[in-house]
Design a protein that fits this description.
Chain A: InterPro entries: AAA+_ATPase (IPR003593), ABC_carbohydrate_import_ATPase (IPR050107), ABC_transporter-like_ATP-bd (IPR003439), ABC_transporter-like_CS (IPR017871), P-loop_NTPase (IPR027417). Chain A: This is ABC transporter domain-containing protein. Chain A: GO terms for molecular function: ATP binding; ATP hydrolysis activity. Chain A: It holds the Pfam family ABC_tran. Chain A: Keywords: ATP-binding, Nucleotide-binding. The complex is a heterodimer. Chain A folds into two domains: about 240 residues, 3-Layer(aba) Sandwich (Rossmann fold); about 170 residues, 3-Layer(aba) Sandwich (Rossmann fold). Chain A is about 30% helix and about 25% strand. Chain A has 17 helices and 20 strands. In chain A, strands 6-7-8-3-9-10 form a six-stranded mixed beta sheet, sandwiched between helices. In chain A, strands 16-17-18-13-19-20 form a six-stranded mixed beta sheet, sandwiched between helices. In chain A, a hairpin with a 2-residue loop joins strand 19 and strand 20. In chain A, helix 5 packs across helix 6, helix 8 crosses helix 9 and helix 14 packs parallel to helix 15. Chain A is globular and about 70 Å long. The relative contact order of chain A is 0.11. Chain B is mainly alpha-helical. Chain B contains 14 helices and two strands, in the order E-H-H-H-H-H-H-H-H-H-H-H-H-H-E-H. A two-stranded antiparallel ribbon of chain B has the order 1-2. Chain B is globular. The chains are: A alpha/beta, B mainly alpha. The structure holds adenosine-5'-triphosphate and magnesium ion. Magnesium ion binds next to helix 2 of chain A. The site of magnesium ion has 4 residues of chain A, from helix 2.
Chain lengths: ~525, ~375
C-alpha cells in the first residue's frame, strides 16, 4: 500500500495502515469467442477502500466485475474472500459471500414499491409479509448509509439517481460487504454524483469495499484509493493513494499516449438554415413537456441543448426525428416540412439521429453489428447483406470498435463499443447524405480516447457543412463544442447564450430554473 | 413444524454452456423413455418390445415411415404456423380452428369449381382457398391484437370452438352444401376428381409433403433474408428500436398473424386434396392444430428445425397409435409416452436456463448466520 499522507487521514479503518484484503482475484482468464476479455488478471480490494477499474472500452472491466460477483465463471484463476478460496457459481453465491454488483442497467420492477424491490429475491421470507417491519428495516438500512429513500414509493416514479440508490440499498439489505459499481455515474447528473460519492464515503467508513468503474477521470481521481488500469484484458498499470495522480496521467496510462481531454470548438462559417423549429409544443396526458420552442440550426453550426435530464430533451429530439407528433408547432429539415411525417421521411431529407438509449432503441441487442447498421437504411425487399459487409468492416476499423467482425452481436459488445456502433451508423449517412445530425449524449460511456475521436468526428461533420444539434447533460461538453447553447428547463428554452462566452454560473442557474432573463 | 432438510435451488445461469444445448435434448428423450419403461413395467408390458414395435411402426417399415411422413405433412404446416407467429412473440393457439376453416375453404373450392379445370390448376386453387379461409379466421384476433392489444391467446382459442361447431354444422345440417346429398348418413360431399391428388404407390403419402417442405424452407428464408423478416426480428427484440427506425409494428403484427392463420388453413386444405377428399367431421377429435404447437415447442420455435421435430413427433404418434393394432397394448400407453417425451423435452429447458442444485437447509442457515 502506498504510504502517502492521504492514506492515513482517511477514516477509522485505516489507522492501522494495512486493512485486510476483503476479496482478491488471482490470474483470472475469461475467454469469449474470439477475445480474451480477461488475461491472467490479478486484482484485490481491501475493507474500507475504493478500488477503481479503469480502461478503454472493451478492456474487460465489466467482465472482471462479472467474474468477481459470480455472474461469469472464469476459465482459469480463482477468487479468495478474506483469505479463503471461494467458488462462485452464480450471483446468488456471490451474495452469500457478501459480494453484490450494481449494474448499469438497473434490474428493478417498476410497478413494485421500493421495499418490495429490495426484498425481491430474498430467501427465508416469512409466508406472510409484514409490510411495516420490512419498510422499517429497509428505511433503517438506507438511513444508516445516508441513502434516504421512501420505502413505499413506486420505483417507476423515481428518477434514475433514486433508482440507483434503490439498487444500492438492495445490495446492502442483502448483506453486501463488497459492492461493484459498474459505471454508476454515467447516468447521473452532477448533483446526484455528489450524493453518490457521499454514500460511497459512508459505506467505506463502515468498512465496506467498493469496486468502482468509470470513464470520467476527474471522478476517478476524486474517489479512488487505488486504481488498476486494464488494457486488452491485461493489467497494465497501478496507481495507489488518493490524490497522487491527475487525469492526464491516468489518460496516458489508459491509452498509452497523450490525450486532448478538453473539447475543441471547430469554428466554421455557418450557412443557410437547415433545421427550423417553430413554436413547438407537446403535451403528454395534459402535462406540457415542451412549450413554445423556436430556433434554427444552420449548416456548419453546432447548437447545444443543456439541461438537467428530464426537462424535455428526449422529447425534443424525438419530435425532431419524427418519432413523436407535436401538439402544435412545426419542424422542417432542409426546407422540407417533417412534422408528423415519421422517421423515414425525416431521414430521407437528411436527418441522422443518435438517441440517448443505445441498446433497445438505437441498436437491436440480439442482432449483429451488420444488421444494426441496416436499421436506419433503405433495405431492399431481400436484405442485401453482402454489399454492406465491406462497409461494416471499414466502420469497425475506423471507429476502433472492439468486435470479432460484422457478425458480432450487439448485446455482446462492451458498453462503449455499442455506443460506437451507433455513432458509426449515424455519422456515416444512411438514406441520404446527412444534413442534420441530432446527437444525444454522444460520449456517454466512452473512454477518453474514443471521446476524442467522437468529438473530432462531430467537428469534421460540421466542417463538411452538416448542422448539428448536440443534446447532452455533460455541461462541459455542450459549452465547449457548441456555437450557441440553449438551456431547457421544464420543456421551455430559458436561456440562449453563445458557447464561447457562456458563463458557467449563468447556465447553471438557468438549468436549475433560476433564470429570470428570458431568451434574447 | 417439520422441516425438510434439503432444498432444491434454481439459479439462473448468466450464460448457458454450449455442451448443455446438445446434451439436454438428448438426455430428455432418454429420461422420457426410462420413465415410460417404468410405467410399462408397472402395467405389465415389456418396455423393450413396446419400444421396438413403436420404432418399427413409426419409422422402420414402409407403411410406418410413409404414414409418418403423411402425418408430418400436416404437422409441419401447423408447426410453422405456431412457430412463425412466435417469431414475433405472438401466440397463435387457434391453429386448430384455422385448420378446420382450411378444410371448409378447400372443400368449398373443390366442390364449387366442379370438374372443369386440370388438376395442376385445381389443386393450387383449393390449397389457396384453404389458406385464405385460415387467414380469414384469424383476421379479427389479428386486428384487435394490433389495434387494442387484446390477447390473441384467448381470441384465437375461442374461435377454435366456433370453428368446431362450424364443422359440425356444415356436415350435420340437412341440405348443407358440404354434405353428401346421396346418403342419409351425415358425410362430407366429395370434391371434384381434379381436386384430388394420388398418393405415392400403395402408401398414404401425398405430394403435398413436398409442398410442406418447400413452405417450411420458404418461411425460414423469409425470416432470415428478407426485409419482412428483418422487421419481425427488430419488433420482437425491441419495439422501441422498431419505432425509432420507422417500422410499422401494427401492420407487421397483422401480416404475421394472417400468414400464421393461412399456414394452418393450408394444412386443412392439404387434407382435402390428399387423404380426405371431403370434410371429415372426425377432424375435430384429432387435434392436429394443437399438435403443431407441440411441434413448434419441440423445435424451440426455430423454423429450421420444424421439419425435424414434425417428422419425429409424427413418427411417435404413428408408432404409438399402431401399438394398439399390432400388439394388444392399449392406445393410451402410446399417448402417455408421447406426453412423457414432450414433458421431459420441455422440462429439460430448465436445465439449460438454470443451475439446479440441492442444498442442505442447515448449511444455508449456518452460512447466513456467519455473514
Ligand atoms: N457475452 C459476451 N460474448 C462475447 N464477447 C463479449 C461478451 N461480453 C463481453 N465481450 C467482449 O469482451 C471484451 C471486454 O468486454 P467488457 O464488457 O468487459 O469491456 P469493458 O471494459 O467493460 O468496456 P466498456 O468500457 O466499453 O464498458 C470486449 O471485446 C467485448 O466485445
Ligand atoms: Mg463495461
Amino acid at each position: 500500500m502506498s504510504s502517502t499522507s492521504h492514506e492515513v487521514a482517511r477514516g477509522p479503518h485505516h489507522n492501522s495502515g494495512a486493512a485486510s484484503t476483503a476479496l482478491s482475484a488471482h490470474s483470472i482468464d475469461k475467454k469469449f469467442p474470439g477475445v480474451l476479455a480477461n488475461d491472467s488478471v490479478d486484482f484485490d480490494v481491501r475493507a474500507g477502500e475504493v478500488h477503481t477499474l479503469l480502461g478503454e472500452n472493451g478492456a474487460g472491466k465489466s467482465t472482471l466485475a462479472a467474474v468477481l460477483c459470480g455472474l461469469y465463471q472464469p476459465d482459469a484463476g480463482y477468487l479468495m474472500r478474506n483469505g479463503k478460496r471461494i467458488n462462485l457459481s452464480s450471483p446468488r453465491a456471490g451474495l452469500q459471500h457478501g459480494i453484490a454488483m450494481v449494474h448499469q442497467h438497473f434490474r428493478l420492477v417498476e410497478r413494485f414499491s421500493v421495499s418490495e424491490n429490495v426484498i425481491l429475491g430474498s430467501r427465508d421470507l416469512p409466508f406472510k409479509l409484514n409490510r411495516r417491519d420490512i419498510n422499517e428495516k429497509v428505511a433503517s438500512v438506507a438511513e444508516s448509509y445516508g441513502l434516504p429513500i421512501d420505502p413505499n414509493a413506486t420505483v417507476g416514479d423515481l428518477s434514475v439517481g433514486q433508482r440507483q440508490r434503490v439498487e444500492i440499498v438492495k445490495a446492502l439489505y442483502q448483506g453486501a460487504e463488497i459492492l461493484l459499481l459498474d459505471e454508476p455515474t454515467a447516468v447521473l447528473v452532477p448533483s446526484e454524483v455528489e450524493k453518490l460519492f457521499e454514500n460511497v464515503h459512508a459505506m467505506t467508513a463502515a468498512g465496506k469495499s467498493i469496486v468502482f468503474i468509470s470513464h470520467k477521470l476527474g471522478e476517478v481521481v476524486e474517489i479512488s484509493d487505488r486504481v488498476t488500469v486494464l488494457r486488452n484484458g491485461r493489467v497494465t498499470g497501478h496507481v495507489s493513494g488518493r490524490g497522487t495522480t491527475d487525469t492526464k496521467e491516468l489518460a496516458r496510462l489508459m491509452v498509452g499516449r497523450d490525450i486532448e481531454l478538453n473539447a475543441q470548438r471547430a469554428t466554421h462559417a455557418t450557412g443557410h438554415e437547415i433545421l427550423q423549429i417553430r413554436n413547438l409544443s407537446l403535451s403528454v396526458e395534459n402535462v406540457a413537456v415542451l412549450s413554445d420552442i423556436s430556433f434554427n440550426v444552420h449548416a456548419g453550426e453546432m447548437v447545444g441543448i443543456a439541461g438537467v435530464a428530464g426537462n424535455g430533451q428526449r422529447e425534443l429530439a424525438d419530435t425532431i426525428a419524427g418519432l413523436i407528433s407535436p401538439t402544435s408547432g412545426s419542424v422542417s429539415i432542409s426546407g422540407a416540412m417533417t412534422t408528423d411525417c415519421g422517421p423515414i421521411q425525416a431521414r430521407e431529407v437528411g436527418l441522422a439521429y443518435v438517441p440517448e438509449d443505445r441498446l433497445g432503441m438505437g441498436l437491436v441487442p440480439s442482432m449483429t453489428i451488420l444488421d444494426n447498421l441496416l436499421l436506419t437504411r433503405d433495405r431492399k425487399v431481400v436484405v442485401d447483406r453482402v454489399s454492406v459487409r465491406p462497409e461494416a468492416t471499414r466502420l469497425i476499423e475506423q471507429f476502433e470498435i472492439k468486435a470479432n467482425g460484422p457478425d458480432h452481436l450487439a448485446r455482446k459488445l462492451s458498453g462503449g463499443n455499442a455506443q460506437k456502433v451507433l455513432l458509426a451508423r449515424e455519422l456515416s449517412g444512411g438514406r441520404s447524405a446527412t444534413k442534420l445530425l441530432v446527437v444525444c449524449s454522444p460520449t456517454r460511456g466512452l473512454d477518453v480516447g474514443a471521446i476524442e475521436t467522437v468529438r473530432r468526428l462531430l467537428n469534421d461533420a460540421r466542417r463538411a457543412g452538416q448542422a448539428i444539434l448536440l443534446i447532452s447533460e455533460d455541461l462541459d461538453e455542450v459549452l465547449s463544442l457548441s456555437d450557441r447553447v440553449f438551456v431547457l428547463y421544464r420543456g421551455a428554452v430559458v436561456l440562449e447564450t453563445p458557447g464561447e462566452s457562456a458563463q458557467l454560473s449563468q447556465v447553471g442557474a438557468a438549468m436549475a430554473g433560476l433564470a429570470n432573463e428570458g431568451r434574447s | 413444524m417439520m422441516r425438510i432438510p434439503f432444498r432444491v435451488v434454481f439459479e439462473q445461469r448468466g450464460e448457458t454452456p454450449r455442451r448443455l444445448s446438445l446434451l439436454v435434448p438428448l438426455a430428455s428423450v432418454l429420461a422420457a423413455l426410462f420413465f415410460g419403461a417404468l410405467f410399462l413395467l408397472a402395467t405389465g408390458y415389456s418396455p423393450i418390445d413396446t419400444y421396438t414395435n413403436m420404432f418399427r411402426d413409426g419409422f422402420a417399415s414402409f407403411n410406418g415411415i410413409t404414414d409418418t411422413l403423411a402425418l408430418s405433412t400436416v404437422l409441419i404446416c401447423t408447426g410453422i404456423s405456431a412457430a412463425f407467429a412466435f417469431q414475433m412473440n405472438l401466440y397463435n393457439i387457434g391453429g386448430e380452428g384455422q385448420l378446420y376453416l382450411g378444410l371448409i375453404g378447400g372443400a368449398w373450392a373443390g366442390i364449387a369449381l366442379g370438374d372443369h379445370l386440370p388438376t395442376l390448376i385445381m389443386v393450387p386453387i383449393v390449397l389457396l382457398c384453404g389458406a385464405l379461409a385460415g387467414a380469414a379466421w384469424i383476421f379479427v384476433p389479428a386486428f384487435v391484437r394490433s389495434r387494442l392489444g387484446t390477447s390473441e391467446i384467448v381470441s384465437t382459442l375461442l374461435l377454435t370452438y366456433i370453428g368446431a361447431s362450424l364443422i359440425k354444422h356444415v356436415i350435420y345440417t340437412p341440405d348443407s352444401f358440404f354434405r353428401n346429398p346421396n346418403t342419409s348418413f351425415p358425410q362430407g360431399r366429395r370434391v371434384a376428381d381434379s381436386a384430388s391428388l394420388d398418393s405415392f404407390g400403395s402408401s398414404r403419402l401425398y405430394p403435398t409433403f413436398f409442398v410442406a417442405l418447400i413452405i417450411a424452407g420458404a418461411l425460414y428464408w423469409i425470416v432470415k433474408r428478407t426485409e419482412f423478416g428483418y422487421r419481425i426480428n427488430v419488433i420482437s427484440d425491441s419495439p422501441r428500436a422498431a419505432h425509432y427506425a420507422g417500422i410499422n409494428a401494427r401492420r407487421t403484427t397483422i401480416w404475421v398473424m394472417l400468414i400464421s392463420g393461412a399456414l394452418s388453413g393450408l394444412a386443412g386444405a392439404m387434407l382435402i386434396v390428399g387423404p380426405y377428399g371431403k370434410i371429415e367431421p372426425s377432424i375435430i377429435t384429432l387435434g392436429y392444430g394443437y399438435a403443431g404447437i407441440v411441434v413448434a415447442a419441440l423445435a424451440r420455435n426455430n423454423l429450421g428445425l420444424i421439419i425435424v421435430s414434425g417428422i419425429l413427433f409424427s413418427g411417435l404418434r404413428v408408432g404409438g397409435n399402431n401399438l394398439q393394432v399390432t400388439t394388444d397394448t392399449p392406445i393410451h400407453i402410446g399417448v402417455m409416452l408421447q406426453g412423457a417425451i414432450l414433458l421431459f423435452a420441455l422440462g429439460g429447458e430448465a436445465f439449460r436456463r438454470y443451475h439446479i442444485h440441492v442444498v442442505r437447509v442447515q448449511d444455508a442457515t449456518a452460512r447466513k448466520a456467519a455473514v
